[in-house]
UniProtKB/TrEMBL annotation:
GO terms for molecular function: aminoacyl-tRNA deacylase activity; ATP binding; leucine-tRNA ligase activity. The lineage of its organism: Bacteria, Thermotogati, Thermotogota, Thermotogae, Thermotogales. Residues 418-620 form the Aminoacyl-tRNA synthetase class Ia domain. It comes from Thermotoga sp. TBYP3.1.4.1. Keywords: Aminoacyl-tRNA synthetase, ATP-binding, Cytoplasm, Ligase, Nucleotide-binding, Protein biosynthesis. It is found in: Cytoplasm. This is Leucine--tRNA ligase. The keyword Ligase applies. ATP binds at K583. It catalyses: tRNA(Leu) + L-leucine + ATP = L-leucyl-tRNA(Leu) + AMP + diphosphate. It comes from the Bacteria. Residues 220-406 form the Leucyl-tRNA synthetase editing domain. Residues 40-183 form the Methionyl/Leucyl tRNA synthetase domain. Residues 661-786 form the Methionyl/Valyl/Leucyl/Isoleucyl-tRNA synthetase anticodon-binding domain. Pfam families: Anticodon_1 (PF08264), tRNA-synt_1 (PF00133), tRNA-synt_1_2 (PF13603), tRNA-synt_1g (PF09334).
Amino acid sequence: MKEYRPQEIEKKWQEVWEEKKVFYTPQRSEKPKYYALVMFPYPSGTLHVGHVKNYVIGDIVARYKRMRGYNVLHPFGYDAFGLPAENAAIEKGIHPEEWTRKNINTIRGQVKKLGISYDWSREIATCDEEYYKWTQWIFLQLYKNGLAYKKKAAVNWCPKCKTVLANEQVKDGKCERCGTSVTIRHLEQWFFKITDYAERLLNDLDKLTGWPEHVKTMQRNWIGKSTGAEIDFPVEGSDTKIRVFTTRPDTLWGVTFMALAPESPLVEELVPEEKKEELQEFLERVKQQDRFRRTSVEAEKEGFFLGRYAINPVTGERIPIYVANYILMEYGTGAIMGVPAHDQRDFSFAKKYGIPIKVVIKPADRDLDPEKMEEAYEGEGIMVNSGPFDGTPSSEGIEKVINWLEEKGIGKRSVQYKLRDWLISRQRYWGAPIPIIYCEKCGIVPVPEEDLPVRLPKDVEFLPTGQSPLSFHEGFKRTKCPICGGEAQRETDTMDTFVDSSWYFLRYVNPHLEDKPFEPDDVNYWLPVDQYIGGVEHAVLHLLYSRFVTKVLHDLGYLNFDEPFTNLFTQGMIYKDGAKMSKSKGNVVSPDEMIEKYGADTLRMYILFMAPPEKDAEWSDAGIEGVHRFIKRLWNTFYTVLPFVKEENTENLVLKNSTEKELRRKLHSIIKKITEDIEGGFKFNTAISGLMELVNHLSQYLNSVPQEEWNRKLLREIVEKLTLALSPFAPHLAEEFWHDLGNDSLVVQQAWPSYDPKALEVEEVEIAIQINGKVRDKVVVPVDISEEALKRIVLERERVKEYVDGKPIKKFLYVRGRIVNIVV
Ligand code: ANZ
Ligand code: ZN
């Protein structure tokens, strides 16, 4: 028997697939289209088995859909711009491009060894000129339509990476990449106006029925829609009014102070001369505090009394105005009305500064005594001490008070979103240059489309200065104004890499098109993506940005769809020794090593078999060993059977006995189950169990039936269907089997195995039941029922119970398929 040498057969079949271009996708076909997409990797080094899981899941989907008769687009590429390349340049003196290309080559080699069915002719890297030219084009479309703008902004600054970070890249006040505490800087920055799309990005989540609920929830929370009112509070002794945003206008009668964000321009305006110095000290201190943490309920509240008062517009009461660290300038109006009795943060603040607490919402079950309250009462109740609204349930009060305020002209209905505009400027080299020119005469001038790309120069110096290295490159920086021809300067910031990845799924459709980013007819044919697969870590940013850019291009008439991904699957992570794999922990499982040891088919099968793919799972060396043993057993079984079936076909298959019938029934029911496991939601682990079960039944048959009696046609049917069903999971092995079965064709180009519903029927027999020598009853049971199972059924029957009549059973004899004899 030939020996299983995975490294040999895998290489062989990979070459055949490549040579015959079997995975090259025609742009159009008679077949229905299916776009299976995996999140492209950031080429920062080598792949670990977590990436492999992503690509293997994608490959199963792609291969399965091809066998199901679809024209499948399954592309691959690299999210190749970004900070680590530049940091490597600073640390190791390698040019970011060189570093990136080297990593891309490594990754491509790794992926090819896995036998993933990508159409390599569509490979893209976002750092390619032919790609970033179109990223710049997208910037220009946004700019021309008022969706890209520049403003001075307080930005998150990572002192270690020396770069601006988007809010999304700050985790708990720390830089997502290096963990350094983030500080604030004021810089001129480019933004995309994603807030214009907040409502649609929120509402259209309801359309995405093929997305996991938890991802949609994360997006909803990120967009963070709040409805309420904006209310104006006049300042005593001034014409100024402080406008606040509140979601609880029903608590307006309980306001006992006001608070401004430290960054609010009103602070400077209102502070009396004699308090200026003291204020400055306070501001300097709190502005350093982490903007995300300082607003949390737990954070220590700090305030500064401005010495000024506002007037509550509904009660006429005089209320002190503070600056407080827990008020954000970026949300609502940057000012609040403080209601200590009903807001926990206001409560802590009031306690600390001795501000009165005034109850205006009374819970149904008790009275609140402001003197004794230990925390705010934030729930619903009845409005009290609230003038005309006394007795109104707070739930209705919110609406009623808003209407009343609008009538009186004191306030108005308002909707706020947590979502901020997307800050896309990066003071870095390794990204797509922002295609903008500054001219003294003409101002901000977009680079004309025909002048794209704005090329990244190669010869730059990498110094950790905090400014874009491009700003020191005179040749890049100095240019001519496209309008007046005068001396002008280029923008030296590059774009956030999330811009690159916000449209790559469109580029795969026409990856090398020279005069357009894509052909609208082609993208409208291929998109939306039918199945997108990736990590849940991209649940907010990447997916939200991609949805946004898709909607913009839709509105500009380029796309006839406005959601890019119909179905989304988020795979679980692979842990090792109870921890996330990372180089620093030294617990990375390298796919190369596993492939060398066991072959790619074993690695693929093990990754899918270890757990349901959406679940996190723990890598186990014993686990992969086990799967490898199964594959070897499968191999041996296959080649034991092969000589008997090689010349056979399955025409006129006759089943001689119940053993054969039962074996065929199992074959068909397992094929059915595997099909349903794949269709019904990525249950690849149980699909693989099905394959294992089938191999067990087959070897049982081979071991228990003498060789001369083997039903060759049946065996042919089994190994054929087994090979076909195996092929998405272990494609090289399946190709080898298929070839050795005498086929000239490739298994990857075959149809998915069907099952015969008739074969699923369990054969049944009627059994006579004799009690003390007389036939008293009859029962219909499956032919192969065990004696034990039969006994249970028989003794439960009413007629049998009647005759046995509680007496002990002396004898129970089963003549298989015919009769039961009971003696009592
Ligand atoms: C008075 C009030 C009384 C409030 C009450 C709440 C409870 P969400 O749901 O997150 O939108 N707020 C408004 N702007 C703020 C800012 N820039 N920084 C910090 N806090 C701000 O929260 C809205 C509530 O958060 C608003 O409603 C306001 O406090 C506060 F019993 O106004 B509320
Ligand atoms: Zn000019």
